[in-house]
Amino acid sequence: MQIHVVKSKIHRVKCTGADLNYIGSITIDQDLMDAANIIEGEKVQIVDNNNGERLETYAIPGPRNSGEITINGAAARKVTKGDVLILITYAIMDIEEAKLFKPALVFPNEENNLLN
User: Fold this and answer.
1) What whole-number distance in Å separates Cα of residue 89 and Cα of residue 23?
2) Beta bridge partners of 44
3) Stretch 46-67: mean pLDDT, rounded?
4) Is residue 94 within 8 Å of residue 1, measured between CB atoms?
5) What is the dihedral of CA 30, 4, 12, 45, to 10 degrees?
6) Exposure string (b/e) for 40-77, b if CB count within 10 Å is 16 or more?
7) Which residues, at least 6 apart from 96, have a Cβ–Cβ distance to it below 8 Å?
8) Would you call 76 helix, strand, or coil by DSSP?
9) CA 14, CA 27: separation in Å to the nearest integer?
10) How many CA atoms, within 13 angstroms, populate the side-chain half-sphere of residue 10?
């Protein structure tokens, strides 16, 4: 049997933009993606702490050390600039592997940058 397990989490980042006219996706600062082990094109669940919205899209890298977290496309209607978000990815693995697996958990500062 295989189960879905949290693979990565970027906890409490601030949405820096919502671009309705972009093709789709979420743009995430490449440094945050690397720290959370998220790759370009990976499915990302977005949880909006301000309004309770939960949605899924895919990750695209933003400029390093920019703190950028931009919701693109139709999802931009569900998130407002300044909202506090949690970004989560999942992996599918067997139960024994899941028991040993440690997710990448990232807790950026208020500017969406990595803490030193």
Assistant:
1) 21
2) 57
3) 97
4) yes
5) 70
6) eebebebebeeeebebebebbbbeeebbbbbbbbebbe
7) none
8) helix
9) 12
10) 33
Rounded to two decimals, the pTM is 0.95
CA distance linking residue 74 with residue 115, whole number of Å: 31
How far is C-alpha 99 from the geometric centre of its chain's CA atoms? 23
pLDDT tops 90 at residue 24: no
The residue assigned the tokens 């295989």 is 2
Please report, in angstroms and rounded to a whole number, the separation of the first and last CA atoms in the chain: 39
Domains for the chain: give ranges and CATH numbers. Answer: 13-87 (2.40.40.20)
**In the block, residue with structure tokens 């820096």:** 16
Cα–Cα distance for residue pair 9/37, rounded to 1 Å:
9
Q: Which residues belong to the active site?
A: 25, 58
CA within 13 Å, CB half, 13: 33
